[in-house]
Amino acid sequence: MVVDDHPPIREWLADVLTPLGIGVLPARSGDEAIALIREGAQVHGAICDVLMPHAEIEGVETARILWHDHGIPCLMLTSVQEAGAKLAALYAGAIGYVVKDLAHGDLIRASVAALLAGEALPEPLTEISVSDAEVRQIDERYAAYVRAMEQLTPQQRVVAQLLQEGKTNREIAEQLVLSRGTVNTHVSHILERLNLATRREVKTRVLFAYTGHGVESGGRNV
What is the overall mean pLDDT for the chain? Predict the structure, then answer.
């Protein structure tokens, strides 16, 4: 499965992988990818973009759901080069990370062949090198997140956790036996406290971007 919101990328990957006899199932977003899986699509591996701004489920969260819920390994193919994004993909369970500017047919074919065979990828995520500056930035973001979480009420923290798990407001209301209006208010306060624009960022940025706390530089402890 190729999960990318740009048709030319989906088409290029299909052209690249066809000579290997690999069928490609396109998906325009994480939402569509997960829906196809739940409808019974048979998928043995996935290539996911990181940023799909018009999707409810972006790439990192898609990779997490595909791997942890359905056992489908994912390769990230993206223009995002920041170490924080790579770490987010690692925590989500992705087993490879390729930058689009450096991607070429042979690299994609080798990576996907290894992915499907359960072998180590040419450039595994375990070799990510994180600079001292990036470590400081991750730690600062984590500290800011902790301070913001401390300002939430106990119930708002529970709601935030359920948002991270991908629950809708309706599902949260049913699980906590609250009114939809109460949950909507909690979500608004959570977004405001955490300085996030949308609930999607709670699922992607909050869940993974701050779990890099304590990561050391030079590729250690990653």
Answer: 80
Using one digit for the tens of pLDDT, what is the confidence trace for 96-148? 888 888 788 888 998 898 888 887 676 645 555 666 776 677 677 777 777 88
The owner of tokens 């990828």 is: 121
Name the amino acid, one letter, at 12.
W
Residue 154: CB atoms within 10 Å? 7
Supply 55's token pair.
Answer: 């999707």
C-alpha torsion 158→148→136→64, nearest 10: 30
CA dist 124 → 4, 95, 219 (Å): 21, 7, 12
Condensed to tens digits (0 to 9), the pLDDT of residues 35-87 reads: 999 999 999 999 999 888 777 788 888 998 898 889 999 999 988 877 778 87
Residue 179 phi/psi, 5-degree rounding, is -75, 155
pTM, to two decimals:
0.62
Distance CA(182)–CA(197), nearest Å, equals 19
- pLDDT at 222 exceeding the cut of 50: no
